[in-house]
Write a structure and sequence with these properties.
The structure is a single chain. The chain contains 17 helices and 26 strands. The protein is an alpha/beta fold and 516 residues long. α10 packs across α12.
Length: 516
């Protein structure tokens, strides 16, 4: 199963539909584009294994570039559109990128990149002269290159806790570009995706992220039509499901929250009857949010837990989730282990660091120390999450190890508090962090995005404290509520807690200087 075969057998079938513009690319058109891109790569002197960075918003070119790289055997390095010029420069240099492809949306940062990285050639969609991507692509033929090889991705972590790290996958298992990959089997056997090409798959998230990129390309392997939203909007997502008769989709919990908090008239306006499967991940979904989504969409919601590292995956369908609320499922790829600080496995019900055992383990590019830090003495690897198993083998995530707050010697996991806050009708989003405290080491701070900023203030703080009080031990109650119109969250749902923690650390340092 591969787009090459679909181009041969059903070349007129839509492969990509842009939800906003309505632009359509067929499998035949995508095949010709991919071949031209592979020709371009070779014409530029890039060989198999060389790194090509992509800095683009969701456009009709993105997935076609990925499939072109798949023909040329190159390593695509997707770059987050949220990053600053210094952060982008770090990735370009760390990955030893040989070519950067971008769009005019990033003109500001590209000016800095040209100066800082003069040795990296640029091709710009909408550019001119030597940087005109369209002209460079159009100059190539559409025949396959003679040395086709399967390409790969090297995804960089979102950098929520420090410098992003490149996840370098093991070499391809086969040199056959038509060879399938494990995600196809997981999608078909685990999520129940059809193999007959009838699927219409909606992708509302940025394509530079692991999940949208992985699931979109998997959908293409299965001959599906992939509907790409240029940018997520809750009502527009519902409209896209109706307009394109979407059968399958992929989400993160923040998408669910924003759709649930639409006016009920808007939520019920659209026909979602053709929607058969909705998968979600990226962060644990608060139980009330998940239950509300199942009540609304029916038992079509499938949750999984995995990471860019590809070392393992758990999965749970709605029926099993209703019997095990809060779980992210049982392992369907890799073997799961829950370990204590001494590395020994823990019994059901006890929280510990999660490790996956797998035959193929990646490394962190140019960072053997980070690789070693993620490894168990037995060769298992962790994504840095804490959780526990129940007696039936279902996994429950507690929080990220790096997010834990230690206040007065007590371990506090922010996720518990965040899940309660976002369930409040006046809260759109929430982040709970540990801020420096001279008395207890750290204090709990809740940074809250209200549905309406007009509600922000002492009245809402009192309401939230009263709401949390019956559910939280006093040590977990936020010492401070900070109301903001928006949180530093990636469009893929990842929350940049590091930015918030750094901000409060600077405040504490400045306050200390003023008192000295």
């Amino acid at each position: 199963m591969h787009p090459i075969t679909h181009a041969r057998t059903r070349g007129d079938h839509p492969a990509i539909v842009m939800a906003g513009s309505g632009a359509v690319m067929t499998y035949g058109e995508m095949d010709a584009y991919a071949n031209r891109f592979a020709q371009l790569i070779r014409a530029r002197g890039l060989a198999r294994g060389d790194h090509v960075a992509v800095l683009m918003e969701n456009t009709e070119d993105y997935l076609q570039i990925v499939w072109g790289s798949q023909r040329a055997g190159t390593m695509i390095v997707p770059i987050s559109t949220r990053l600053t010029a210094p952060e982008i420069r770090y990735i370009l240099e760390d990955a030893d990128v040989k070519l950067l492809i971008a769009t005019r949306a990033f003109d500001d940062v590209l000016r800095d990149i040209r100066q800082a990285c003069p040795g990296i050639p640029l091709l710009i969609v909408g550019g001119s002269g030597a940087e005109d991507y369209a002209a460079a692509l159009d100059a190539q033929g559409s025949d396959p290159i003679p040395d086709q090889a399967p390409g790969q991705y090297m995804l960089y972590s979102s950098g929520t806790t420090g410098r992003p790290k490149g996840v370098r996958p093991p070499p391809p298992a086969s040199d056959d570009i038509l060879a399938t990959n494990p995600l196809v089997g997981l999608a078909v056997m685990g999520a129940g995706w059809p193999t007959d090409g009838s699927m219409v798959y909606l992708s509302p998230a940025p394509l530079y992220h692991a999940a949208p990129l992985g699931w979109c390309t998997t959908a293409h392997r299965l001959g599906a039509t992939v509907v790409v939203m240029e940018k997520f909007d809750p009502e527009a997502a519902l409209a896209a499901i109706e307009r394109h008769r979407v059968t399958d989709s992929q989400w993160v919990p923040t998408h669910f929250v924003r759709m649930l908090k639409l006016d009920p008239v808007l939520r019920t306006r659209y026909d979602l009857s053709g929607h058969q499967r909705a998968i979600h991940a990226a962060a644990p979904c608060p139980v009330p949010v998940k239950r509300a989504m199942i009540d609304w969409w029916g038992p079509i919601i499938i949750e999984y837990y995995a990471g860019s590292e590809g070392i393992g995956m758990t999965l749970i369908k709605s029926e099993d989730w209703l019997a095990h609320p809060g779980s992210v499922g049982r392992a369907i790829h890799g073997t799961l282990h829950v370990c204590g600080p001494d590395g020994e496995e823990l019994p059901p019900g006890e929280d510990g660091l999660l490790f996956f055992e797998n035959d193929t383990i990646p490394t962190y590019h140019n960072d053997p120390a980070k690789t070693a830090d993620a490894m168990h003495p037995k060769g298992w690897m962790t994504l840095g999450d804490i959780g526990h198993l129940d007696d039936d083998g279902y996994l429950y995530l507690t929080d990220r190890k790096s997010h834990m707050i230690i206040s007065g010697g007590v371990n506090i996991y922010p996720q518990e508090i965040e899940n309660l806050l976002v369930a409040h009708e006046k809260v759109m989003d929430a982040a709970v962090i540990g801020a420096p405290c001279p008395d207890f080491g750290e204090k709990v701070v809740a940074v809250v995005q209200p549905v309406d900023m007009a509600d922000a203030g002492a009245g809402l703080e009192a309401e939230l404290r009263a709401y949390l009080a019956p559910e939280l031990a006093r040590i977990k109650m936020p010492k401070l509520f900070d109301f903001r119109p928006e949180l530093p969250r990636e469009a893929n749902g990842k929350l940049y807690k590091r930015e918030l923690r750094d901000e409060y650390t600077r405040r504490a340092e400045e306050a200390t200087k003023r008192t000295v």
